[in-house]
Design a protein that fits this description.
By secondary structure, the chain is mainly alpha-helical. It has helices at about 1-25, 35-60, 75-100. The mean pLDDT is about 80.
Length: about 100
């Protein structure tokens, strides 16, 4: 259960944070809270899926929880970094599309 929380919870939360940061940086795009949260969370999942494996591989076996059943540090870092970046990127894209649709 805890593995699922770390695997999905961390990227969703950091994606929402990254999406909020990206939307506040784009002053000309007025997005309500729901599109920010949804695009940030979904982008966080996508970004974490893209970065969790490569980052875990770069950190080596000891950092991936192989030693004595420890925590998967590489997966956690990949989820956090990938989640924040993915959330920011997808929120920026959604913001640009919404601004083009409004006129």
């Amino acid at each position: 259960m805890m593995d699922l929380l770390i695997q999905y919870g961390v990227p969703i939360i950091t994606g929402m944070i990254g999406g909020g940061a990206a939307s506040s940086a784009m002053k000309n795009v007025a997005m309500t809270m729901l599109p920010k949260l949804l695009s940030g969370g979904l982008g966080g999942l996508g970004g974490a899926a893209a970065l969790a494996g490569p980052l875990a591989g770069m950190l080596g076996g000891a950092a991936t929880g192989d030693a004595a059943g420890g925590m998967d540090i590489g997966g956690l870092l990949g989820g956090a970094v990938g989640g924040g970046a993915g959330g920011a990127i997808l929120t920026a894209v959604v913001g640009m599309v919404m601004s083009k649709m409004k006129g």
